[in-house]
């Protein structure tokens, strides 16, 4: 099972969801205005979460009339709407969770959502692959190990960004800018904007947490 979540970020940054729309292995969830956007796209969300302060009263009434699993929360709370939805998704133990509409707009939400990739994806349920995707980027987080990467159409660049104070023993093979057993620190730009030389490459590291970003030209 794959769970796809559409948050309330700018729709111009959301990729074409038609590629996921009719897949039988996908369960859809919406967050705040993302719920209304899903319905407008012809996608019926299985679950809906939020305080819904970004929809009009008429739009909220429409959602209440057309959705069974509509979870409405107060505006003043200790979690963002997306974090609440992500907590639900992780508990379902899916193979993969893909977040859309979670980039752009407010910088505080964007940065918090990137941190959620590490918190929920690695600590709460490491068997679930957690991905944040928009029109130009795919982000995911890795803990130490060796990983294969393949070329992706439209995603020329690969960046490796430390999420911990240090990431040790990083090795990149099959890349335009290879590395061998290097240590990088939080804030380093050494591994930004790399490229695969061939259809496949590998990266590995021994300690720390890495944010992997696949970006378009």
Automatic annotation (TrEMBL):
One of its GO terms (molecular function) is kinase activity. CDD domains: TPK. It is an enzyme of class 2 (transferase). Residues 145-211 form the Thiamin pyrophosphokinase thiamin-binding domain. This is Thiamine diphosphokinase. It comes from Peribacillus deserti. PANTHER family: THIAMINE PYROPHOSPHOKINASE (PTHR41299). GO terms for biological process: thiamine diphosphate biosynthetic process; thiamine metabolic process. InterPro entries: Thi_PPkinase, Thiamin_PyroPKinase_B1-bd, TPK, TPK_B1-bd_sf, TPK_catalytic, TPK_catalytic_sf. SUPFAM superfamilies: Thiamin pyrophosphokinase, catalytic domain, Thiamin pyrophosphokinase, substrate-binding domain. Keywords: ATP-binding, Kinase, Nucleotide-binding, Transferase. Its EC number is 2.7.6.2.
């Amino acid at each position: 099972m794959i769970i796809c979540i559409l948050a309330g970020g700018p729709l111009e940054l959301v990729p074409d969801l038609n590629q996921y729309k009719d897949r039988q292995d996908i369960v859809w969830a919406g967050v705040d205005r993302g719920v209304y956007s899903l319905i407008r796209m012809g996608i019926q969300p299985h679950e809906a979460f939020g305080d819904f302060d970004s929809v009009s009263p008429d739009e909220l009434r429409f959602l209440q009339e057309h959705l069974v699993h509509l979870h409405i929360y107060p505006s003043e709370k200790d979690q963002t709407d997306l974090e609440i939805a992500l907590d639900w998704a992780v508990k379902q133990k899916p193979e993969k969770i893909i977040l859309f509409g979670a980039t752009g707009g407010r910088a505080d939400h964007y940065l918090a959502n990137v941190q959620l990739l590490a918190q929920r994806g690695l600590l709460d349920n490491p068997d679930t692959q957690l991905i944040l995707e928009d029109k130009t980027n795919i982000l995911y987080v890795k803990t130490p190990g060796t990983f294969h990467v393949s070329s992706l159409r439209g995603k020329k660049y690969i960046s490796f960004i430390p999420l911990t104070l240090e990431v040790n023993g990083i090795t990149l093979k099959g890349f335009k800018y290879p590395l061998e057993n290097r240590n990088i620190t939080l804030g380093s730009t050494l591994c930004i904007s790399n490229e695969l030389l061939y259809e496949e490459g590998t990266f590995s590291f021994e300690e720390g947490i890495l944010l992997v970003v696949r970006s378009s030209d």
